[in-house]
């Protein structure tokens, strides 16, 4: 018979006599101890990655803004405005030739001055063509157009030179030159008006699309970067606050100074970046709208005005084509500053009523244009007096008015218009310089604030992680 011994239980541990120290609190389970550093590492990594994303968005947004400023303010924008001088230079060349032919053997000093001006404009036109060729890099069709203008300009110079030579040999009095001179000049001016000037005008418009496209593209991109920066900045702030709160709860501490400093630097760097990109967006818009667009409108306006001034000389120079040149003058006048009138006389009457200008190339410039409009009206009034003399058969007096009062009033109008262009140039320069300066200032501190914030996050977390080793 087998006897089974009862299992004996472990003897109870006697309580310490006299009430000793209570038993220690059991340690946290290993799973919980492992989860604390894991959560710290996860939150830290998320905060650092968020800071890196913030830095990247700031860098990309700054690059986009700087590229827009480079295109609009330093490279293509100024070149487009310079290219607009091509139309002005070409039209003024033909205007000076017409003046010299109109003077005949009289006005010796004025004739020499007009010839010197012709040479200066030819040099400026050649330089403008070089600028346009550089601007059209990669655009084969536009470069072919520029080459065509260069070839046409060479033909025009030969014809103009031949007309000037024949005019000098004829020795005619001021007024209409001999038929031999007119035949050659008609070929030259038709080449200029019907081929070269339209191509030059289109070159300016096509080149301007580069600036317009850059402005629209980069402005949209900067707006997206600003929105992205705000979103990531909010996310980074939340992550830093969560990390701060978790450390406070896990380690019985109210505050982690390093994390607090990191949060402050993150807010400063992020808000500074958003503010700077907003300022860049305003600077780019101001440079484009108040600077580039205005400069281009004034440059084109001066070119058209110079061309219609040349039509006044052609009107007196070639009576057989007087109606054609008068209609061309009216069309250009209405494209410059629109006023109702089916003929030149009606146009002058409408301008004399001093009604508000609503349309036209210069009508787009709404502010600060009062002096320009006043000078333009005086110029058109002088044109009316010159045409009255020509229509009454007083050809010599009409030529004198063209070279005297009319030339003086046009010079005054062009001077006021040029001053308007200089104001736009100053606004353009200020906007570009302000944008460049804001970017340079921001890059001296904002990105480094984010880098320092990332370093402080690590400095604030590392001592706590060491406690779990």
From TrEMBL:
UniProt region (Disordered), positions on chain: 1-34
Annotated TM spans: 42-61, 221-243, 255-274
Keyword field: Membrane, Transmembrane, Transmembrane helix
Superkingdom of source: Bacteria
Identification of the protein by name: Secreted protein
Source organism (scientific name): Nonomuraea typhae
């Amino acid at each position: 018979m087998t006897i089974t011994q009862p299992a004996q239980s472990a003897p109870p541990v006697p309580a310490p006599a006299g009430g000793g120290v209570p038993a220690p609190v059991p340690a946290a389970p290993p799973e919980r101890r492992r989860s604390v550093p894991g959560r710290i590492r996860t939150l830290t990594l998320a905060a650092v990655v968020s800071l890196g994303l913030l830095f990247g968005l700031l860098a990309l947004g700054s690059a986009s803004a700087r590229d827009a400023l480079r295109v609009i303010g330093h490279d293509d924008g100024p070149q487009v405005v310079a290219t607009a001088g091509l139309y002005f230079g070409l039209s003024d060349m033909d205007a000076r030739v017409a003046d010299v032919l109109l003077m005949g053997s009289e006005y010796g000093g004025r004739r020499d001055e007009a010839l010197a001006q012709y040479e200066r404009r030819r040099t400026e036109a050649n330089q403008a063509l070089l600028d346009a060729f550089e601007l059209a890099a990669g655009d084969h069709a536009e470069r072919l157009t520029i080459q065509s203008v260069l070839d046409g300009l060479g033909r025009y110079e030969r014809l103009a030179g031949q007309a000037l030579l024949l005019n000098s040999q004829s020795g005619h009095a001021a007024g209409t030159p001999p038929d031999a001179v007119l035949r050659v000049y008609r070929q030259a001016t038709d080449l200029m008006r019907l081929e070269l000037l339209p191509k030059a005008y289109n070159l300016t418009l096509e080149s301007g699309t580069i600036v317009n496209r850059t402005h629209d593209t980069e402005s949209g991109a900067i707006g997206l970067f600003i929105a992205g920066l705000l979103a990531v900045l909010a996310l980074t702030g939340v992550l830093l606050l969560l990390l701060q709160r978790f450390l406070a709860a896990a380690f019985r501490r109210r505050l982690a100074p390093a994390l607090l400093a990191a949060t402050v630097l993150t807010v400063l760097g992020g808000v500074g970046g958003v503010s700077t990109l907003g300022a860049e967006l305003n600077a780019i818009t101001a440079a484009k709208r108040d600077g580039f667009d205005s400069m281009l409108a004034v440059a084109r306006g001066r070119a058209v005005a110079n061309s219609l001034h040349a039509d006044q000389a052609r009107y007196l120079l070639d009576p057989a084509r007087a109606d054609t040149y008068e209609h061309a003058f009216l069309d250009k006048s209405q494209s410059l500053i629109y006023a109702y009138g089916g003929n030149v006389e009606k146009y002058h009457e409408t301008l004399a009523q001093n009604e508000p200008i609503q349309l036209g190339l210069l009508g787009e410039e709404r502010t600060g244009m009062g002096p320009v409009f006043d000078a333009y009206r005086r110029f058109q009034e002088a044109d009316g007096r010159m045409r009255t003399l020509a229509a009454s058969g007083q050809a010599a007096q009409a030529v004198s008015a063209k070279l005297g009062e009319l030339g003086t009033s046009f010079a005054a109008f062009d001077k006021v218009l040029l001053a308007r262009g200089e104001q736009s140039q100053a606004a353009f320069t200020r906007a570009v310089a302000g944008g460049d300066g804001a970017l340079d200032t921001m890059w001296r501190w904002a990105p480094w604030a984010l880098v320092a914030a990332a370093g402080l996050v690590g400095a604030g977390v590392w001592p706590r992680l060491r406690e779990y080793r």
